[in-house]
Amino acid sequence: xxxxxxxxxxxxxxxxxxxxxxxxxxxxxxxxxxxxxxxxxxxxxxxxxxxxxxxxxxxxxxxxxxxxxxxxxxxxxxxxxxxxxxxxxxxxxxxxxxxxxxxxxxxxxxxxxxxxxxxxxxxxxxxxxxxxxxxxxxxxxxxxxxxxxxxx
Length: 152
Hints:
- The chain is an alpha+beta fold and 152 residues long.
- Helices cover 34% and strands 16% of the residues.
- It contains four helices and seven strands, in the order H-E-E-E-E-E-H-H-H-E-E.
- The strands form two sheets. It has a five-stranded antiparallel β-sheet, covered by helices on one side.
- Helix 1 runs parallel beside helix 2 and helix 2 (63-73) runs parallel beside helix 4 (109-122).
């Protein structure tokens, strides 16, 4: 792998509003929250710095996992309140699309499960309690017929 081995992460984060570093645009991106993602080694190991804490992802970690962690750390996966869906509706739709793309890009069950856990925790998916299926927020009923509970 080269320093461009994480180009997919840089592309996804800049599309989500992160700013590429002027001197090292393919290696460092920053979010306005202060969260910073960096390619640490030529092999593709990367790190996520959040408020003094750091998470290191090995070169074997999928881009989708790094992207999901970055979006969660920057607060970009927080759900929008459902009682007012005006201007924020577009932002919520974009967040849902990002989660859908991350889930679609997951190539292993570990990656898929990591993205799903982040999305559930951030409130961008809800889980049906009777059958344990996951659903996007616009779905009010599960395939098993159970309605979405107010706690989801």
